Amino acid sequence: MAARKNVMRAVKVFQFGGPEVLKLQSDTSLPVPEENQVLIKVHACGINPVETYIRSGTHAKKPALPYIPGTDVAGIVQGVGEHVTAFKKGDRVFTLGTISGGYAEYTIASVDTVFSLSDKLDFKQGAATGIPYFTAYHALFQKGSAKAGETVLVHGASGGVGIATCQIARAYGLKVFGTAGTEEGMNLVLKNGAHKVFNHRKEDYLAQIKEIAGAQGIDVIIEMLADVNLASDLQLLSSGGRVMIVGSRGPIEINPRDTMLKGSSIRGLSLFSASKDELRECAASILAGIEAGWLKPVVGPEYPMEKAAEAHKDIIHSKGALGKMVLIMS
Ligand code: NAP
Predict the structure, then answer these.
(1) Contact 325/300 with Cβ under 8 angstroms?
(2) H-run or E-run covering 50
(3) Ligand 1 mean position, distance from CA 55 (Å)
(4) CA of 160 to the centre of ligand 1 (A)
(5) Ranges of the chain whose pLDDT falls below 50
(6) How remote is the C-alpha of 288 from its chain's centroid?
(7) How far apart, in whole angstroms, are the C-alpha atoms of residue 45 and residue 300?
(8) What is the CB-side half-sphere exposure of residue 293 using CA atoms within 13 A?
(9) 320 lines ligand 1 (CB under 6 A)
(10) CB 192, CB 321: distance < 8 Å
(11) What is the DSSP secondary-structure string of 76-95?
(12) What pLDDT score was predicted for residue 4?
């Protein structure tokens, strides 16, 4: 829907709480880009699990109320603030962050979080690029020190970050194992770079991974649900192996002794804490992957703005991920 007299539709949070606190408003003022900012007409915005934690008020990051959620949008530049020379009105772009919130018809973003969107990708794919691919690269290489020839297990490979990790790891010459919880998810993981896939809802899947990894074990595990898997991950690692904690939804008991003989590392990471240099490196790799054609974001369930609350319910109580969930504005 077009903006009327400088107002737009946006999904706002006025108080922290369940998905029902996401309220679609039709009279939100259009944000105005300041110095080094870009105003974007949003076509699609990625939905990330972290946005549900922030909305519930349980996350370390608590925005001032009211706020509009959403970080990775794709759309068209509508205007630019002072000193912005890299973009102009009409450019197709995607973002890694927004200042005013992405679940809206218009948003502003700092110019250093805005990237040109190649004609090879549509807006939904653009909205599925920022957080998933930057996180995947950051976890694999900047924190996990993964190298070509090593084996990586993407533990939770069927969702936004998982598919991104499989594509990147395959392109960089790793041996890629992935897991998913449904047949459809497993097929998607295989189509997107994994050499082998396992079903994390099957009781014997860890034994299967162990058998295929052999005596060498797994060099790097990119873990999406550490509160469930961390203790068993330690059993799968190679000597010098690393578990990268990308996602966790609660506590878990592990035996520290399981890290000793193999000199295993457990390392947590947050894209929010990545340095500017690290993000620049991620961007260079991701833009090169899009250009080369191997980086193809997989768009999963799509929701209109009216159904943002339903999307937040579904991403947490998922029946089985199939790529990246997105909110569609137009
Ligand atoms: P998503 O699209 O909802 O995907 C969730 C993934 O977890 C799916 O592949 C799902 O598989 C898998 N999963 C479910 N049960 C599992 C189990 N028992 N063992 C292993 N995997 C299991 O979410 P996402 O966007 O990819 O994000 C994944 C996690 O990373 C979330 O916790 C998110 O908060 C976190 N994250 C962290 C950062 C960071 O900076 N640290 C950045 C982005 C995301 P099935 O649905 O097929 O069962």
Answers:
(1) yes
(2) helix 49-56
(3) 18
(4) 7
(5) 1
(6) 18
(7) 12
(8) 0
(9) yes
(10) no
(11) EEEEE-TT--S--TT-EEEE
(12) 61
